[in-house]
User: What shape does this take?
Amino acid sequence: MNATGTLNLLDHARNYCPAAPFVFTSTNKVYGDRPNSLPLLEFGTRYDLPPDHERYDGIDETTSIDQCLHSVFGASKVAADIMTQEYGKYFGMPTVCFRGGCLTGENHSGAKQHGFLSYLMKCAVTGQSYTVMGYGGKQVRDNIHSADLVRMFEAFIENPKVGEVYNAGGGRERSCSLLEAIALAEDITGNKMSLSYQDESRVGDHKWWITSLDKFRSHYPRWHQEFTLKEILTRMYTTNRDRWCALA
Assistant: This one.
């Protein structure tokens, strides 16, 4: 669906509105498990890179997407991502791929396998058991509020480029391990979470992902993020607490 649907939309855009900016929401899963080859160190609550490592502030768009393990979802996104780039470069269309990671917000309907902050907060509120999948909960993700992501889209639409690619995420300041997110959710809700652990991680899952925003910021320096990690989780709690409790 990702590959075929995107191809159909690209072809319609080329035929009927080739000058209109075409924004494709890709994913950092196009990099497969490539980030797991980084020289990560294990700390008390997270895996992380040494501060002097060139990718300490995040993974950039030069990272290879080849010769690594992708999930089927990631592979389908690779196909759509590359096709979006090719339509831009081959036909001169203003296309862009935003390779997002944890895109979230208070209206995110998270589930066990998707939308981890939203699902985590729901479990913290309701007392539902939360399963930590792999890496002892020390896997790291950065998180971006959907409103900040939309502002990235708007910046591109106002000044589009041809066949571009940008990683889209919260960056190091909005990164957390699963253990750190659990601690923050417990602090916000005042509840102790019910946790279980499994050794097996998800196929193609990243042990560590922090987004480098350097390229996007260099092209669109007026863009900035409004929501911190704690603000994102707090808004999830205050917006959904009563509804989640009623459903529990």
Remarks:
- The CA atoms of residues 97 and 165 lie 5 Å apart.
- The mean pLDDT is 95.
- The chain has seven helices and ten strands.
